[in-house]
Amino acid sequence: MNTPLVPLLLSLLLAPVDGFESDAIRRNYMMETVKGVEQIIAHRGASVERPECTAIAIERAIQTGATAVEVDIRSSKDGVLVIMHDSTVDRTTNGTGNVNDLTLDELLQLDAGSWFHRRYRDQTVPTLREVLEQCRGRIDVVLDLKEYGEEYRNKVVREVRQFGEPKRMIIGVRSMAHIKTFSELMPEARLIGLVSHPREIEMFVDNGVEMIRLWPKWFDQFEEDLVRRVRLAGATLHLNGTLGELEETYTLLKHFPVSLSSDDPKKLKLTMRKIKHGVWPGGKPEASPRARVLLNR
To answer: Does 130 fall in a domain?
Structure first.
């Protein structure tokens, strides 16, 4: 059976989550959704606990047991690939200006941690090479491609092949050019489609993307069943979370994602464990002693 269709079939066979006839059915349903999550992605590292997109945030993500860490790739003025979410350094460093207008030496002079807490004032803007070497043999890496040029794409491929592990890369593609380059030059890597609009779902999947990222806000903005479209196209589903809180995570899991991201991967893992053992928003854990023991570990 086509693996992406399994969650679709389960969702059709089981009663709607909000209309369960018994707590037992609800518990069993949610247990299956938790089991289906294969990736817990630390968004910009463990960015609730550490300054985002820094070596210490990535290290903390590894410590929490996240299965992957997501980082954003931009180019310095002199063509070095660096890790920075925003197009400017203003928000997350003590500097100002566009990343593309600053040389690597200028970027390395910036304090990338004090904005979060002064104890992290020694953190600098990491290069892609440093991140790949830090993560090698330890954790999957999601590369969010923030630029589009051919030179940029080819440079990412070269650095991953030289310093990283292509089989452990998940490439966040945003265009047909992204898909073409990484399908041809790094076929070992997995592709996640960072579609900008639902109209791109089928186009991305038809061109080889195996997983689609949907924004949860789209479920309110569009009347159609976007998750069903992803399944029928033959792809799996990734959903972006934020803080790993119970209500948010419970809502996301109802869509049977195989991948979730969070700024707080430690909290997300704990919340998923709670849901697996019978906790839900407005509810309470199953009363069995075994459930209480598992939740208190």
So the answer is: no
* pLDDT over threshold 50, residue 269: yes
Q: How many helices (H) and strands (E) does the chain have?
A: 13, 9
Q: Structural domain tally of the chain?
A: 1
Average pLDDT score over residue span 210-220: 97
CA distances from 29 to 23, 38, 235 (A): 10, 17, 21
Determine, yes or no, domain membership for 22: yes
Ordered alpha helix ranges (H), 14-120: 23-35, 55-64, 104-108
Question: b/e for 53-80, b at 16 or more Cβ within 10 A?
Answer: bbbbbbbbbbebebbbbbbbbbbbbeeb
DSSP E strand stretches across the chain: 39-43, 68-75, 81-83, 140-145, 169-173, 190-193, 211-214, 236-240, 259-262
More confidently predicted of 204 and 281: 204
Task: Give the domain extent around 253.
Answer: 1-35+196-263
Whether residue 191 is contained in a domain is answered as no
- CB neighbour list of residue 223: distance below 8 Å, 6 or more residues apart: none
Which among 65, 75, 70, 67 is positioned nearest to 47, based on CA atoms? 70
Whole-structure pTM value = 0.88
More confident residue, 188 or 2: 188
Inside any domain, residue 80: no
Task: Tell me the catalytic residues.
Answer: 43, 85
Q: How confident is the model at residue 296 (pLDDT cuts 50, 70, 90)?
A: very low
16 contact partners, CB below 8 Å, separation of at least 6: none
Query: What is the pairing mode between strands 236-240 and 211-214?
Result: parallel
